[in-house]
Specification:
The protein is 12% helix and 35% strand. The chain is mostly beta strands.
């Protein structure tokens, strides 16, 4: 969660699903966030392998005027199985 001064608060969340790996964020050039998946246990260049049809996790960007509004959002919890 972070404050965007003069605008409000923002948080990035993820609703997990099955055995799909959880994403993590890395910062690039100070202001850019990149979502990544961890390296797989069997093969470093393969984060996940599965069969179709596949249901992936929800990625959620919550925005609110106050930190409390964003932190009290039930959206991510409501999306978790």
């Amino acid at each position: 969660m972070t404050e965007q001064r003069g605008i409000g608060w923002a948080a990035i969340g993820e609703a997990a699903t099955g055995d799909y790996p959880r994403m993590y964020l890395t910062r690039q050039d100070g202001n850019i966030l990149i979502s990544r998946l961890p390296a797989g246990a069997k093969e470093a260049n393969l984060a996940w392998e599965g069969a179709t049809p596949m249901t992936g996790p929800w990625r959620v960007l919550a925005i609110g005027a106050t930190r409390q509004q964003v932190s009290e959002s039930k959206l991510v919890r409501g999306l978790n199985p």
